[in-house]
Amino acid sequence: MDINAAGIIFSNMHDEEMHEITNCRTMGALPFGGRYRLVDFALSNMRNSGLTSVGIVAKSNYQSLLEHLGSGKEWDLSRKRDGLFIFPPFSRLASGIYKNKIEALHGILSYIKKSKYDYILITDCDVICNLDWKAPLSYHISKKADVTVIYFKKQPGNEKRSETVYTISKDGFVSDILIKQKVEEPCFIGTNMWIMEKNTLINMINDAVAHNLEDIERDIFQKRLNQFKIAAWEYKGYINKINSILDYYQANIDLLSPKVRKELFYKNAPIYTKVLDVVPAKYADTATVSNSLISDGCIIEGQVENSILFRGVHIGKGSAIKNSIIMKDSKTGNNVKLDYVIADKEVIFRDERIMVGCDTRPIYIGKGSTL
Amino acid sequence: MQKECIAMLLAGGEGSRLGNLTKDRAKPAVPFGGKYRIIDFPLSNCVNSRIDTVGVLTQYQPLELNDYIGNGQPWDLDRNDGGVHILPPYQKRETSDWYKGTANAIKQNIPFIRQYNPTYLLILSGDHIYKMDYSKMLEYHKKKKADCTIAVINVPLSEASRFGILNTDEDGKIYEFEEKPQKPKSTNASMGIYVFTFDKLLTYLGCEGEDTNSANDFGKHIIPRMLSKGETIYAYSFEGYWKDVGTIESLWESNMDLIHLDSNILYTNTDWKIYARSPILPPHYISPTASVKNCIVSEGCYIEGTLEDCVIFHGVTVEENTLITNSILFPGSHIKKGSCIHYAVIDENTAIAENSFIGSSANKTVLPSKNLVVISKDNYMEQSKYSMENFIIEAAEAK
Hints:
The complex is a heterodimer. Chain A is an alpha/beta fold. Chain A has ten helices and 28 strands. In chain A, strands 1, 4, 5, 6, 8, 9, 10, 11 and 12 form a nine-stranded mixed sheet that branches. In chain A, strand 2 and strand 3 form a beta hairpin. In chain A, helix 4 crosses helix 7. Chain B has two domains: 255 residues, Alpha-Beta Complex (Spore Coat Polysaccharide Biosynthesis Protein SpsA, Chain A); 118 residues, Hexapeptide repeat proteins (UDP N-Acetylglucosamine Acyltransferase, domain 1, 3 Solenoid), CATH 2.160.10. Chain B is built from nine helices and 29 strands. Chains A and B meet through helix 10, strand 14, strand 15, strand 16 and strand 19 of A and strand 14, strand 15 and strand 16 of B.
């Protein structure tokens, strides 16, 4: 069933914090989980929630994103009515690329105005979850809020930096916002997923541009908490926000847990991605694989443990890959040893190479390197 | 718009030699090679050979096949001009005609073919596993100014009597065609792939007032009649992997060929991609208790047991303490704890109860393929009425 909302996805957040890995691509095109790109999660969630109109805002290095999305067919968003809209960067205010979300939204104001839906759903693409937007949308309507923000409860344990932390009143509204916090104790963390009525959003953008405001969270939500009714809706399933290479590594390794995979891939609806038509994975009689996710097109002759192999990876004889993430079409020769390594696409490890990182600092190897 | 060549894919075979596997599906829709269906091979060959118009002739149990082909998008055959068309037999004003044979099926679809007014017609069958560039065969046909060209493959002399055998002169011109001869004169077996000059074919299909009942089959009627009238028929020899997967044994053998890298057509010549309608599933997971050797495994599987020499399709679950060897697990099958499976084909979405024993690993003196056990959905239904436990099926004695 279609729902009364259009979606906007920002494909470019947190590029600075993980520049090595996003040098050649925008955050949305970051490979994840063996066969996906980060944008697949935001896009599939919207499509599975019944949205038929989704705009993706691109900023820089978006060629791989365009290549990945194509016409939007894989997400069933190649439509005569509505469908997938990709907005390459342009700014009507200043010269050059837009600087922040307000400018970006101002740039696509005509898309928002033309939308025939009453509500707009906004998200970044660095949040990995399987969310049905119908629930927060009906919550938003029932609360008669100006904005609804989606948050999750941070459990004690792994520490995160630069998160937005909400204080939430008993009646379900946000009463305080702290930005870029290092979080340690249980708290409510914002996901950068927002729901607004179309007209509220248009007024908000126009007003923000007129007042030369720069940041939606800081200059609008935080400073105008008294004027804005910000409702908060809790997402209770598996969720992971990626702000750094270590976050990225951890989120990948999380997928080795059957519980996480169940929540992410099998619970609400499937996560769609570009189909590549590669052959099934081939295990040689010398293969030993344990606790790993293996994609189509891999050829495994060696040992793989606690790792994720993307499509078309070849592990040579006598090689041992542990705790590593090996992206598409990378190859190892014979007797290669890797431990805590993130190898980007098309990396070649020659025979006998040994690389060892550690759990708090995995080694990253750039796209197309030969070692 | 006129097309130089269009393909007609005969996908209507009953596939009775595949037993229960084709009870609810046409033979070309039988799963193959971890993520494919048999029909993916000729369809992908067409697309890779730049033939963009394919008529798929269906007849028996077409539902699963129709559903699978859909609008042809996975093969890039969702075209405005051409693309893939499903052509079932249909009721006419005076008669309703079930396809009586290969040539008869083509004859009944002449109106479809005429829409594209092709100069050449490529006839394919939907039950072979191979990678072939049809455009080269078409070039050969044009160069030889032939009326018909038949693709042939060299088979061992011992097997030649199973095939239609083409006897040619040195130039490749066919002077004799023998259907399943007792004493074959050559080892050039017909692959069931024909290129016809369309105008010529029309005269032999009996469209122009001839006796219509006798020209139903290419191998039995059309080719011999063309030869007897002195038409130019050439053999185009094909080298490479080719397998007729019309029987359970050959289907199993052809799947097993995939697990050896050197005889594996999927992993060699990877530029010639085989396309398939892909399921939406994450990569497969191999647990710490699992051991997987000499297998191919597809997406979305969850493996906790021991697998040796197997072909595992997408979405298969194999629980702990299981041993599966020399078997094919079709999509979505589920092998529960403690089961042991040897030389078996497990059909789609079939669950095997805990502690079951299937197949036979003992008798090594006969060909393993003769010991094959096929577990279809029906088997499971019957058994589950009684008990979920100890579901035991042993292979029939080798004949």
